[in-house]
UniProtKB/TrEMBL annotation:
The active site is at E216. It comes from the Bacteria. Residues 51-235 form the Succinylglutamate desuccinylase/Aspartoacylase catalytic domain. This is Succinylglutamate desuccinylase. Pfam families: AstE_AspA_cat, AstE_AspA_hybrid. It is an enzyme of class 3 (hydrolase). Belongs to the AspA/AstE family. Succinylglutamate desuccinylase subfamily. Its EC number is 3.5.1.96.
Amino acid sequence: MSLSDYFADFIAADELTVWSDAGTLPGVSVIEHAPGVLALMPKAPDPAAGATIISAGIHGDETAPIELFGELLAALDAGQLRVGAPALLIMGNRRAIAAGKRYIDTNLNRRFQRDTLLRDDERLECLRARELMQAVDRFMTDISGPVLHMDMHTAIRDSRYPRFAVEPFSETPTPDDVWQLLAEAGIQAGLSQHQHSWTFSHYTRHYHGAMSFTLELGRVAPFGSNDLEPLSPMLDLLRARIAGTSLKTAGRASLVRFEVVDEVMRESDDFSLCLADDIANFTEFAPGACLARDGIQGDWIVREAPVHVVFPNANVERGARALLLARPVPQAPCDSR
Ligand SMILES: [Zn+2]
């Protein structure tokens, strides 16, 4: 069975039964760590090449990453892409992908908390988060050296920076050369989180020390309607990571760094954002501007310095984040390469 067929069957199957054949590649051990999660372990890896975790479809309606993932599978199946370093390929939420929805029961990308392994929440996304956490744990036991995790998404709305990376909160800063790598792959901005949040990229960073990012790669669109051209540098990076080679670029790209300074939570049913529905991510608001109205918290007004709004969404569950507020990070003095 080809890798492409494996993942197509994984998404389309009514019920998952026993998977006897998880695909084969010459010179590579293909290990199924969970349904829809394949480790590609080269039998003769380049010791200098780092391992990579590549995930797509954590949100089911974010199709561009699933198409990029498909390009990788096709290149692997055709022998055009050689596996030179360990890679874990993860297709996230198959039920939501098949339904063309962000999620079925609850937002999968808030469920990656190890404590939930002990709870028996039977919602579909809670079950899947447990499977994915255990699959990553298994993969990591076979890996040494630094790991890069790219969890690929697309945003619900336009963005002043269409392609940006969200860095989960961590005590350990991301090295400059990793930011540079993302810039070379066409990422235009980096947004650093200010506190723990239970996303997939936070899981691999927090529990395994991986260099992990939630990558927002443009805007949500149906299958076949994505313009993959702006994502070709990202595809080059994914291919280089699997091949265990370095990305060949001019080395001149740069990205703008932001850090989250606050967040607006939805506390009541009587909640609205004061922003236009179609406002772009990273739009700036001056002091005095109203950002949200909540029946319990009252009005949320910008104080002191201007803020940039990211991920505004009034239609979140109560107690969930409706808006992130960010400010630019002063550029590092030494960014030359
Ligand atoms: Zn997403």
